[in-house]
Structures are given as structure tokens and as C-alpha cells.
Design a protein that fits this description.
With 200 residues, the chain is of the alpha+beta class. Helices cover 15% and strands 28% of the residues. The strands form 2 sheets. Strands 5-2-1-9-8 form a 5-stranded mixed sheet, with no helix packed on it. Strands 4-3-6-7 form a 4-stranded antiparallel sheet, with no helix packed on it. It is elongated and about 170 Å long.
Amino acid sequence: MKTQTSYNFVKQLASRLFLPHLLFLVVIAGCSTTEEPPVSDPTAVPEEVVTEPTNTAVPTAEPVEEPPPTLTPPPPPSTAGAGDADVLFVSARMTGENVWSFSVTVEHLDTGWEDYADGWDVVLPDGTVLLPNPDNPFTRLLLHPHENEQPFTRNQSNIMIPAEITQVTVRAHDLVDGFGGQEVVVDLTAVSGENFEVDR
């Protein structure tokens, strides 16, 4: 009986003295536990760091003002077809049925064999050039320069003009620049006109 009482006394004493202290120690021990940092493996391959693209705006450069275009002067006009052999006067004379003789006065600044008036033409309204000699390039071929005879007059006979043709044009050609000088339009039904005369 005495033993049982002693046991109960010790039990009560322990529960009063040690139990609160024991609980306090358990609580403290639970709070103080921390995770240790993981130990890195020196043989492990580091993970690749992927950076997400950002939407930061890239500053744009200020617009550069372009210089105005350089103006290039146009090239000089071509002298081809801009000849300067001028027909000053035409005298047309009928010498037979539909046969005419023309006397044509031409002016050109002949400088010698390198540049001179080398022919004149009688041209129908449809553009046909009348050639008394089909081997010549012009109605009247001029065979040499006339640098000391300006203006000069040359004749050509046996020019066949159809009866229905009432008007022709006379033009001159120079060796360097071709046709393009002053021309004379001859009305074959008139006695005279601007820079021409007609004898029927």
C-alpha cells in the first residue's frame, strides 16, 4: 500500500514538473529545425539558363534627310537630221511633156571635203525623191565643196514629174548633218511664189 502511494506521488510530481518542460523542449526543437541547403554535385552539368525575350522597344534612328537629286543638264540635241544646207531660191522650167529642169540656189558653210553641201532633191508630196540618174543618191549630186562660192546655183534637167502633181518640195543635204535646212515648196501651177518661180 505504501509502494502504490509512492508511485502515484512520483507520477503526479513528474507530470507537474516535467511535462510542461518536456512539451516546451519539443516545441523549441520543432521550430529550430531548418533544411540544409542541397550539396551541389561537382560533376553535374549546369542547367542552361533560358532568358525570355522582353518587349522593350528598340529605339529607332532619326530619319536621315536625303540630299536633293543632282540635276544633270540634258544632252545637246543630236545633229543628225539637223543639216544647215539651205535652199534659198528655185527656178523650175518645163522643157517637155512632164519633163522639167530645176535651177536651185543653195547656201552652206562649206569648209572643204570634210563638210560641204553634197546634193539637193526634188520631192513629191508622197515623199518620193525624183532621180534623173538612178545611180545618184540625190536629184542633183554635188561633186565638190563650194567654200569660195556661197551661195551657189546648180541646174538639173530631165526631171520627170507626173502631170497630176502640182506641188514639189526642194531640199538640200550636207555631208555631215544631212537634211534639215531651209526648204522651198514650189507650186508648179503658179508663176512665182515665196522663193521660187515657174516657167511653163
